[in-house]
UniProtKB/TrEMBL annotation:
Transmembrane segments: none annotated. One of its GO terms (cellular component) is collagen trimer. Residues 227-243 have a biased composition (Basic and acidic residues). It comes from the Eukaryota. Residues 51-216 form the Collagenase NC10/endostatin domain. GO terms for molecular function: carbohydrate binding. Residues 223-243 are annotated as: Disordered. This is Multiplexin, isoform I.
């Protein structure tokens, strides 16, 4: 009989301990928001609030059919790769400084490659006068997934930009507004082997260099603008396809207002 009572007592004590531990978990979880249904979804959304950078799948001379042609190439290759962002070419021109490509509201966002590796802590940090210095070896991938620093598709590890260190366009150093592949004309480029994105090295416009594309508008900002603007759903807007460089340029102008 004593043995039976002892066993029951153990069961009661065990149950009390379990209830006590469960109470601790519930109180702690409520305090820290463990049971908030939006908690993990919010973390996933936060992870997407960044600006992606990718390279076009092949190097190019300074003849990119103008800034509109370069932007459209970024859009088409991004779409084919399944990256449905608002991509623009990382190039200055007669109508834009390099630092103004991204909307002011997004310039504090981190800049990442297509695999999510952080390249710069913020967009505006690229233009702090230090030449867009990478804290470690650049890890930049093309839309097709190739590492431009190791793949032989890009024998010259240099990127066109046509800009001064502070992001202002450098007059007469962007290959006739990116319409010229003439060896007698030139533009500023940067040697990525030197861990700088905004080095001012003059290259002749017939050089075939890396063309970078950057998201001019974060995915989160793009979604909010659509909700406030024309009321179209995110899916409908993402499925829209632009057939010409002029159509995409008009879309960019409207979206980045």
């Amino acid at each position: 009989m004593a043995m039976v009572i002892s066993t029951r007592a153990k069961l009661v004590i065990t149950a009390l301990i379990l209830f006590f531990l469960l109470g601790i978990v519930l109180v702690t979880g409520s305090t820290k928001g463990w049971f908030n249904p939006n908690r993990y979804n919010g973390e996933r959304v936060a992870a997407r609030i960044q600006l992606r950078v990718a390279a076009l799948n092949e190097p190019s001379t300074g003849d990119l059919q103008g800034i509109r042609g370069a932007d459209f190439a970024c859009y088409r290759q991004g779409r084919r790769a399944g990256l449905l962002g608002t991509f623009k070419a990382f190039l200055s021109s007669r109508v834009q400084n390099l630092d103004t490509i991204v909307r002011p509201a997004d310039r504090d966002l981190p800049v990442v490659n297509t695999r999510g590796d952080v390249l710069f802590n913020s967009w505006k940090g690229i233009f702090n006068g230090q030449g867009g210095f990478f804290s470690q070896a650049p890890r930049i991938y093309s839309f097709s997934g190739k590492n431009v620093m190791t793949d032989s598709t890009w024998p010259m590890k240099m990127v066109w930009h046509g800009s001064l260190p502070n992001g202002e366009r450098s007059m007469d150093t962007y290959c006739d507004a990116w319409h010229s592949g003439d060896h007698l004309k030139g533009s500023f480029a940067s040697n990525l082997d030197g861990h700088k994105l905004l080095e001012q090295k003059r290259q002749s416009c017939d050089s075939k260099l890396i063309i970078l594309c950057v998201e001019a508008l974060s995915q989160d900002r793009k979604r909010k603008k659509r909700e406030i603007g024309d009321g179209s759903s995110h899916g409908e807007s993402e499925s829209r396809e632009f057939k010409t460089a002029d159509e995409y340029a008009a879309h960019l102008e409207n979206l980045l207002l």
